[in-house]
Amino acid sequence: MTQPSEKALVPFVSVDNMMRLVHHIGIEQILRDLAGYVEDDFKRWELFDKTPRVASHSDVGVIELMPTSDGEAYGFKYVNGHPKNTSEGLQTVTAFGLLADVYTGYPVLLTEMTMLTALRTAATSAMAAKYLAPKGSTTMAMIGNGAQSEFQTLAMKAIIGLKSVRLYDKDTAATAKCARNLEGLGVEVVSCKTPEEAIEGAQILTTCTADKQNATILTDNMVGSGVHINAIGGDCPGKTELAAGILSRSDVFVEYPPQTRIEGEIQQMPEDFSVTELWEVISGQKQGRTGDRQITLFDSVGFAIEDFSALRYIRDRIKGTDYFIELDMLADPDDPRDLFGMLQRAKS
Amino acid sequence: MTQPSEKALVPFVSVDNMMRLVHHIGIEQILRDLAGYVEDDFKRWELFDKTPRVASHSDVGVIELMPTSDGEAYGFKYVNGHPKNTSEGLQTVTAFGLLADVYTGYPVLLTEMTMLTALRTAATSAMAAKYLAPKGSTTMAMIGNGAQSEFQTLAMKAIIGLKSVRLYDKDTAATAKCARNLEGLGVEVVSCKTPEEAIEGAQILTTCTADKQNATILTDNMVGSGVHINAIGGDCPGKTELAAGILSRSDVFVEYPPQTRIEGEIQQMPEDFSVTELWEVISGQKQGRTGDRQITLFDSVGFAIEDFSALRYIRDRIKGTDYFIELDMLADPDDPRDLFGMLQRAKS
């Protein structure tokens, strides 16, 4: 066979290589690095092509493509959501992503994104908390102790200096799992029996439960003044975690209003409910936290630009390493008009 | 490392493996097989989700995602179009595709699609000609002798019994390349100096030139009655190959009117210009060729369902072969809530 040219080979990062890369860099360092890439992209938010995600719905789930571009690179994530998968021993969510060069149209990276999405979600939360949480926040209530909980905790430690996390989940096995995983990682872990106990003394309240329907994980009377709420779990139509009263008392920050009004906590509110776009705070155009008694709320649903930042980071970071293999994915005849000749020559 | 489960591994067909597979099956057989899969999907056309393609445009090109689903499988193709690439030694078009299981959301195939698209385009043309060309057609004029020309010729041979092809390209080197590639493959090849010479005695006129702008490859007076025109090259806004007068005298068949009215030959015609959807002919709901003197015209722009058929075929055909490798692309923790534990265990 003829060897394909260098540009016809696409670097691929497998799940195994992604995990090796995380340990090579260190999990707290990769969370800091990712937060930096996300922050940089939020600063140049207006540059990005904000195509709505393309969803294909079925009775049992959804498959989505989330593309975006900054004019130099183009990225998309494939992600599915199938709640019933868990009972069949499969993942609810799997994801992979691709980055391409806008100038040539050639893909430059293919990577697993289940692990990478967990990392970028936590890095984005902590980056937002840096702007929105009370200065010197040291304690977080982590309500919902599923797949995001350890990543959230370590990102808050790495990026804003969190010292203590107070865990609550209605499933005590999830809390035990999270506490065990965080052992020895430099954060004090307190396992709590009620959400009320978890939020005692916490400056940051993170909600990330798996409840499928509109639920009230935090009721209005549970939330006092001067806290930052990091709401991760309300992320699709019909799925919210906060009482509407909390939203009314908070200054709400969102990624992209047209998407968040459909998928986020604010789906409960009127269409003209006032929100601030997080990128406006990060680029210095609007204020984040303005006072000690203010309740700030990051109503996070996850946006394509965060995946784009993560893809950019992985592309940059794997250069010169062996954390990828090269895939012969693009046909590359010597003469572009002679695809058939390339095929015939492969016969011998 | 822990071995990922079987479903977390995605079969990947590289360019090299695709070419090996084509030679293993035989190029005419694979064209027949693909035509069969495309025909089956045209028969159940109404089942399909017909999302418009999602395009990201830049000054120098376009990157598109073309998704579709039949409710059981979901497929998409990534394809770029960068005309300036050729002058930089790169391909104008590269493509890859993915097929997933709608029930689980898990990908089941990743494959190169530059070679596969060339094959499915030719198979679709020949499948359409089976319904639309004069019975017993033996001679085709092939105007434009680029990357599609050999595939078109062999598909017409394999599927409708073509005996002779008459080549014309304004670049005589392209004609020489095509003639050389077709040597010994069982079709009489006649290289012609003018388009007029090429269409002499041909029952099928295939146009597939690389002209970027609205051009008139076939003028009105060149096309007599009783022929089938297979128009491949007019496939994006501002790119057409046929004189409008030919369209007025023809019965025009298209894949999907909303797309073809923007991208196809009929972009020259009024919005209410009458066309027949090819699937209606193939499913027996409408007539194809109705008489000896009729001019039929397949105004083909390429549609996501044809890629879907090709992906289905490759998925089915590689089972039990070694024409693929498996990619560890999907994170698969034993406990879906314990992604972090999976990451930590990978450390050792």
TrEMBL record, chains A, B:
Keywords from the UniProt entry: Lyase
Class of enzymatic activity (EC top level): lyase
Pfam families hit by this protein: OCD_Mu_crystall
One annotated GO molecular function: ornithine cyclodeaminase activity
EC identifiers of the protein: 4.3.1.12
InterPro entries linked to this entry: NAD(P)-bd_dom_sf, ODC_Mu_crystall, ODC_N
SUPFAM superfamilies according to UniProt: NAD(P)-binding Rossmann-fold domains
NCBIfam families: PRK07589.1
PANTHER family named in the record: KETIMINE REDUCTASE MU-CRYSTALLIN (PTHR13812)
Full protein name: Ornithine cyclodeaminase
Record organism: Leisingera methylohalidivorans DSM 14336
